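Researcher: Quick sanity check before group meeting.
Model: Go ahead. Protein one:
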Amino acid sequence: MSQPADTNLASRSATVASLALERIVRSPATLVENLPIGIYTCDRDGLLVQFNRRAAELWGRTPALGDPAFRYCGAIRTRDRDGNEIAPEESPMAQVLAVGRPARDRELTVERPDGTSLTVLANVDPLFDDHGHLVGGVNCFQDISERVHMQDQMREGRRVARDVMEALPAAIYTTDAEGKLLYYNKAAERLWGFAPTVGEQHWCGSWKILLPDGTPLPHDQCPMAIALKEKRALVGPEAIAERPDGTRVPFMPYPTPIFGSGGEMVGGVNMLIDLTEQKHADAQQRGLIDELNHRVKNTLSTIQSLAAQTLRGGDGGFEGRLLALSRVHDQLTRHAWEWADLAAIAKEIFQPLRGSANSHVVIDGPSVHLKPRVALAMGMVLHELAGNAQKYGALSTPAGAVALNWRLDGRTLHVDWRERGGPATTAPKKRGFGTRLLERSIAHELGGRPAISFSPEGVHCTMEIPLPE
């Protein structure tokens, strides 16, 4: 049976191709000419003897063989990895011809006539005759520009990643699969309080690790060790890093194993969040809540006392006293309940006086920041004195006036209340609400010394109050 025509044609084509390949292989010159790498040879003096097509493509030109202008290389200019120009007599080919030993994996930049440049990897070997005499050299070089570009990108990526980790405020460190410390950033060094030696410490760079209750935690039982041993990411538990100087830093760890493309674990990364500020904020919040509860109880106690005293006295001034209390509260609120200024309190107390009575009040004294307990007591005392002055004393007549002065002597506040030009006053037959409030607020609550006198010229009240630091 005869073979189909297309089968015979394919067989003949394969035979022709095989013969062509055999001729190429048996002809070294043809084989060299078709290689995908640049190859050229130089004689003992460095003059070009032969180069293939790929060499000319890489050089970007076709130099003349044996021309003294093209010694050791056919490129117009070469540079090293740092960008420094290499003189022809210092090129790898010149070195090989000088010493007779190979030059391996020399990375060079080849500049071309059109202004472009390539990065090539050159390997140069000496050539010897049958008697062992050096007669020349051969250079095999290939374009590695793309590979170098990718390597540069990878290096730049690693540099950027390292810079990012250094800039992060959170402590970050990495280990290998065995837990050996490989890297840590500045934030980790600050948290640990020292710089551990990379490659020596395992699992964590902390000097010592403690549980929240103060129990020592061995490094091989820390969260990072557990994450690597169990090959799973963890969050916490909270721990404490003790520094070499004895100070302690509470932190929350986030250890995570790192796996390679084949699924094998290659290391781990851990981020430590410093909880110091959070702990301080939590403590401050608890303190503020406790302080708020304390102040609310004190305020309710004051209101209860005001109500009881008002009912017993029958003077109907309960609403005014509540308003005075609220004005002092406003002053304290403006300063986060840390303090209130005495002058501001006094002005608030006198502000609601009827008619022109407010214009007959002189207030004088330095700026004094009163703690909440002192501010509330002073506000209530001044309110009672002002109310009595408007009802019965100096502010009840157009010619009357009140002078309120104070001064500081160390940590003692001296307050002087003096009424002039009002009706003649005499000591009351029984102690009123104002007198009782003065004694309770100044003497009992603040540990001060109040004194009040009633003379024909008007009421005169002095107070000496020790101020807390």
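Researcher: Fine. The other one?
Model: Protein two, sequence then structure:
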Amino acid sequence: MKKLLISSVAALAVAAPICLVAATPAEATTLYYSSCAKLTVNYHHGVAKSRTAALRQVRQGYGMPSYGTLAQKVYWKNHARLDRDNDGTACER
């Protein structure tokens, strides 16, 4: 009985972090944003089209925007409306 309890707890301890990581939030799959206010809820410092563009924003005194694969998809979906200064970063702050 004690071994069964210990193995159950151990299995739960191993499976719990996997369940938390495997769950994808709805905002992670959103690509289209109608405004910078909505985009910065999920990407606090905006999204960049590349790492170079993100680092350029940091040098200019802004926070580090997201530039991973998903962030780049978000950038390319919204850049015409939300990257008003055409610097490679949408909704920087």
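Researcher: One line on it for the slide.
Model: The helical segments are 2-22, 36-42, 51-59, 69-82.
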